[in-house]
């Protein structure tokens, strides 16, 4: 993908760092002096993918800008667990306004920075999938079409976790949430719903769109770094597993994110000016079942008589991604 | 800035919230025993020296290596590398070519003239080592480093023992062997050649030795009764191979048959080929699967045109003809005669049926126990006679160079402790770093580097070394294939994947520490540690 | 400089003189002319160092202003009616965060039924959101209040709404004295934010506050409004000194010295009432008017002082708290608490219903005879209402009232017998 391929045969590019790599080839997260933009003491659950994704992304943005990042946060887990009075975990200028307006507030900050200079600061808006794909979608689209100088980062954990795991338009089919219970003839979320915001972002022909995963740190950092070097509206959609909402082991957060990528369910790609320019090619393709089995939200698909039809339908989604995005080497 | 009450907060103030209290399990850094180290009969810290080789610090790698083995250039060539059989990397693509890196380091040391580390201050104790084979050399080296005065008494005219007299030079060039032995002598080890010890107790008294290490090897060829008539020429493998070190090379003829299925049989057959034999045939009573020789040697031999008659025994030899009986395996896998015979033409027959130990120097040593032709030793390598230790082929064990070197080291440690009036206590072994402990996702695919091989034509006609060495670039590549099983190699994964910044990076070479004030015990660090160097343990409260 | 211009233009020019740095625009009648004019001025670079942003909704308009204000830019937007409802969440948020945004409300009714004409329902719906609300009586005052509003907002770090009657003021051409840039610069210093998103001094703004501190935060908002009660008159005084005319302040009294009946009103309605009062004065009635400029904070003390000697008070208000009655009257009654002054409420002019001199005089005369109900509806078509109520009583599914009433009125006009429609 975007990052410089590191030919390093002990652990290659897959670890965070390595004592044998020159400093500039290591991940930002390997740096002893990384910013820890989201500091210790936050109240995220054990193994929170969003806390991890946020630190990955913002630290990378801080490095890319010489520590000149202002962040605007939508309401949601990230906001609540990071800034309960009287303590904040943020080490950067940060503001929370509302659930649905992060993109607009950030656009306002960007406008002010254009007028006032703002010491060269760059603004990032961030929110969960609810704040992005649902309630904040209008403001997001407006920010995109105006090409405001904002990087919007969506931390996608595929439901409204902060309010107790309700369905969002990013919830995958068959997933159990508090509002798509695993009961009745069609347990879990229905098929044929939801929206793909990265593709919608691309339809705005904004200069940069990317998807990323907490399971692929170097790729994520490279994308954030690249995004910070571009002016105008940018969008990065990061897949962040939620142990609480997905019913997975806290220790498995990265593993699950990795399986989402390697199964083809969460394709990693980049798009410039509305056109897909790069994609991560699957390293070890796995069946979707490997991904689904680790999560209790899909438990109704397994058990004594597995719901092979539904599993096959999910597999078909993965297969379609593999075809559409060209995720397998020819 | 005038911060509005409660609305606006100071950066990073959440440090006041110690989330460590949420934890049920705590991560701890552990060191586990890498399978290579575990499998090494010489007790090398293989992962340890690979670690330095990875960063290109070959000197340091070599120094780490010679802590346990003073003969890495030899070992890298002749060891059957059980380390590689144990290597976890084999489950990914192929085992790390440890022997090749070891050989590179050994050769590099000889090229650069690196000296072994200087001995410790003089202890005033004297140790007699009997035999200048790998075990004796290893013991002498270790003892000298510990500050003892060491004398090696070697019965033969040259050092090296079976490394010289049992391993052909196309596998172990003699300049390499000589170079590594000289380095030990340079350390101040006295080596007396042609000095046969007939009685160990007398020799110790005469030389005022405080202790002795016996490592005389197994040089007496085992014989089998084969009726022979006429001008039948029957030799044994030990004398053939030993003869290769003399000025007059053994005369074997055009058609040579070797009887046996061990590595020595292969060595002799391949030697015969190089001496000009047009046919070199190995006769072995069982199948290839049952053959004790290592597969790669069989492979190399076959490439060189050596023929092997499986499931055959030699009944008799008349002039230039052998009578061979076909065998078949019974239900238990034992060969049984079939009564079918055939004739093989042969100018000479070489018996490669194993070796025995010459134990005459131990006559009348009180307390010493001998069974099955070898000397019994206790866990500390000491014989039944206090102060007399033994190792190598003369004690019950597998007979390889590597085992011998391991014996020498182990004996040296025990001799040292004994000389100081104590007992050597080996450090406790860590738990084994099995492949299930690893998260192999993080390792890129990188198959083993193939060492260059001499082409067949030259292999059949010369004693040039068959297998080449790695150059610096691919030696480093190979070293870097090490997974560092069970021991932190500072990949920063734990530092990176902690959602709570609860891992403190201490800097190059200093590894990491957990900040238990904030660690919530999610276990992501342990799950994502590539090498299994983090364990989750339940909190006691 | 005196100009004969549309109210919206006058407001735009005043805002321009305040050197705004970020202006967010979203169209809604009747405030559109204001942001159109500002957009043109920014594009022509008559306003320098200013970002004019066309947003996708009122919610975004105020949200963008929240962002720009937090990043230290003087920020302005305008809206009306449904727009302020659509941004309601952000209205509260801007006040909660203490961001000194100035927003013009072109006052208009709220649907359904949808209606574009003037009343005060929109501003009143946000009266408790924590904003300062100033009502303009004339277009001159509308222009002048914006200049005061920025000063007030930034001194208190509190957002200010300037409420201007839709169409009646926004679309009316009047003679307005537009001050010079020097005058405005001398009155309105550069924006020095209390808190700012600054990379060199990072803070987290907008924390989640629980029961342990939320109450205090709310109280402090109230305290800010109490401070405004002192600041607003001072700024009006200073304005008078620098600009030579009255504008703003908490309340203004007109012919109240010996008044037995005092009418209370907000916004442009005051002008109409003054004319009615003048006429009644000529006829010998002892009547006066109190105009409330600052509805939030509500100047309880000033209102009480102005009204407490009257024999009766009539509050004429263009807003209606359905289910109870007057909104302004509530404040007035609170101001007069403990006194024996009867207070009458007259709901008037909802959805743009003309408030005529004739009706007002009739109302006031009834008041003088204390012949009013406590809650009165000026010029409400009682017959229409009663027929609709009757129809609804007869028929379970009577259909929408608005449409029924319109049919009813058309029938009346065309002479078709009732009930035939």
Structure description:
The complex is a heterotrimer of chains A (330), B (541) and C (421). By secondary structure, chain A is α/β, with parallel strands linked by helices. Chain A is built from 11 helices and 8 strands. Chain A is 33% helix and 13% strand. An 8-stranded mixed beta sheet of chain A has the order 2-1-3-4-6-5-7-8, with helices on both faces. Chain B is of the alpha/beta class and 541 residues long. Chain B has 4 domains: 66 residues, Alpha-Beta Plaits (2-Layer Sandwich); 115 residues, Alpha-helical ferredoxin (Fumarate Reductase Iron-sulfur Protein, Chain B, domain 2, Orthogonal Bundle); 159 residues, FAD/NAD(P)-binding domain, CATH 3.50.50.60; 98 residues, FAD/NAD(P)-binding domain (3-Layer(bba) Sandwich). In chain B, the strands form 7 sheets. Chain B has a 5-stranded parallel beta sheet with strand order 5-4-3-6-20, with helices on both faces. In chain B, strands 9-16-10-11-12 form a 5-stranded parallel beta sheet. The longest helix of chain B has 19 residues. Chain B is globular. With 421 residues, chain C is α/β, with parallel strands linked by helices. Chain C has 15 helices and 16 strands. In chain C, helix 1 runs parallel beside helix 7. Chain C is globular, with a radius of gyration of 22 Å. The model of chain C has no long low-confidence stretch (mean pLDDT 95). Chains A and B meet through helix 1 and helix 9 of A and helix 17 and helix 18 of B.
